[in-house]
Amino acid sequence: MKTIKVFFSGVVVYLSVASVHACNASDTLPPWATTGSTMGNGGAGAAPTSSASGGDHGGKGGAGGGVMNPVPGALAESGSRLKAKWIAGDDGAKFFTGMHDSMRKEDCAFLPMTDGKRRCAPLSSSMRLDNSPLAIPEYIDPNCTIRVATSPSYACKVIPLYAHIVADSSCPTYDFVTIAPMSTPSTVYKNTGNTCVAGPPTAKDDYYLVGAHVDPSEFVAGSIVTDP
CA 20 to 30 Å from 33, out of 78, 92, 106, 107? Predict the structure, then answer.
């Protein structure tokens, strides 16, 4: 079993293959570790830091506080399939930005899935497909059987490859389906419950044809384990 090791201010945390409880707050990774955020030190996506004694700021416990230095060593270790992804600075700096699934050839983030396990799923290349009771699904056929998804169109947009469905809003778990870009249809149909009603497409939206469900087992599973 290959283990991915992450450092949190002197505490080593491992991600290994195992099932987890999706709603256990102690299982939740910080945003920088799950989403690959690169906001920098002090932001919500900042990598962990540790204090070092001495220096021009008064040293550890001094009036100026400790000098904050990056945690020594790697923030993550690659496995046989999941590979650590970094931003490499021209001056030799390295900043961990997330994991890459080398078999599926896509970046991924650990999320609680509908099979009860936390898995590294392609959230960064995914758009949300609203599946809540208040949502009115759109289709491109008068029988409301061929579903489509929409997202706002804007410059420099990365074309998503998946749509993710949040299965339970009170205790979020995720499901993924494939999607494919399509031309804006001239007519869309909305399922209002008992009838399939025709209407115009949403202006300035991109349309995607919703495809097959992706089995959660296709993504690498992991759990959070701390050193004793």
Answer: 92
Both tokens of 117, joined, read 């396990």
pTM of the entire structure? 0.64
Cα 164 off chain centre by: 10
- pLDDT in 10s for each residue of the chain, 228 residues: 444 444 433 444 444 433 333 454 444 444 444 443 333 333 333 333 333 333 443 343 444 444 444 444 557 889 999 999 999 999 999 999 999 999 999 999 999 999 999 999 998 889 888 766 657 789 999 999 999 998 888 888 888 999 998 877 678 899 999 999 999 999 999 987 788 999 999 888 899 999 999 999 999 999 988 988
CB 111 within 8 A of CB 121: yes
**Contact by Cβ (8 Å): 151, 160:** yes
